[in-house]
Specification:
2 domains, 5 helices, globular, 160 residues, alpha+beta, seven-stranded mixed β-sheet
Length: 160
C-alpha cells in the first residue's frame, strides 16, 4: 500500500483551545497515534502512562502516552497518543480510524467511510468472508462456509 496522509488536529481535552495540527501518515500496522513530544507538551498535554510498542524493525520501545482528542476528516475521537521524538513523523493509528468508521481499503489504497460504526467486532468467519471479498475471486458465502486461513493463503498464493 502506498503512503496515505491526512491532516489531523490534536486537542488538549482539558483546554480545548490548545491544539496542534500536523500531516499524519496512516500506518496499517500501528494501533495508536504518535506525535512529536514537543508538540504535545506545547499544547499542555502531559504523560499519563507508558506503553511498550513493537516497531516495524522488530525492536521494542516504551514511550509516554496520554489521551487526547484527535480530529480528522470532520470527525473527533478520543485516542491514545504516544510522545514520539521531537522529529518523529506523526502517525494516525487504526484505533482512531475504526472509532469513527473509517478504514483503509487495501485495493484502492483510499480511506473509506463505513455507513455505520461497528458496535462489536466481527466474528472470525465474517472477518474472513470480508477479507475474501476484498481480495476477490472467493465469494463471501464460500468464505463463511469454512474457508480456513490455510485455504485462503493457498488461494492468494495461486493468484500471485
Amino acid at each position: 500500500m502506498g503512503i496515505v496522509q491526512v491532516t489531523v488536529t490534536i486537542r488538549n481535552p482539558a483546554e480545548p483551545d490548545r491544539t496542534w495540527d500536523g500531516l499524519f501518515r496512516l500506518d496499517a500496522g500501528s494501533t495508536d497515534c504518535v506525535a512529536p513530544g514537543n508538540a504535545l507538551r506545547g499544547i499542555g498535554l502531559a504523560p499519563k502512562g507508558r506503553r511498550t510498542y513493537a516497531l516495524a524493525d522488530g525492536r521494542k520501545q516504551t514511550v509516554d502516552i496520554t489521551p487526547a482528542e484527535v480530529e480528522f476528516m470532520g470527525e473527533i475521537v478520543g485516542a491514545t497518543v504516544g510522545f514520539g521524538p521531537d522529529d518523529v513523523e506523526p502517525i494516525l493509528g487504526l484505533t482512531a480510524l475504526a472509532s469513527v468508521g473509517i478504514e483503509i481499503d487495501p485495493v484502492s489504497q483510499r480511506l473509506t467511510r463505513r455507513p455505520a460504526v461497528r458496535m462489536k467486532t466481527e466474528g472470525r468467519a465474517a472477518a474472513w468472508a470480508r477479507l475474501a471479498d476484498l481480495m476477490g475471486g472467493v465469494s463471501a458465502k464460500a468464505a463463511a462456509n469454512g474457508l480456513t486461513e490455510a485455504r485462503l493463503e493457498a488461494l492468494l498464493a495461486d493468484e500471485s
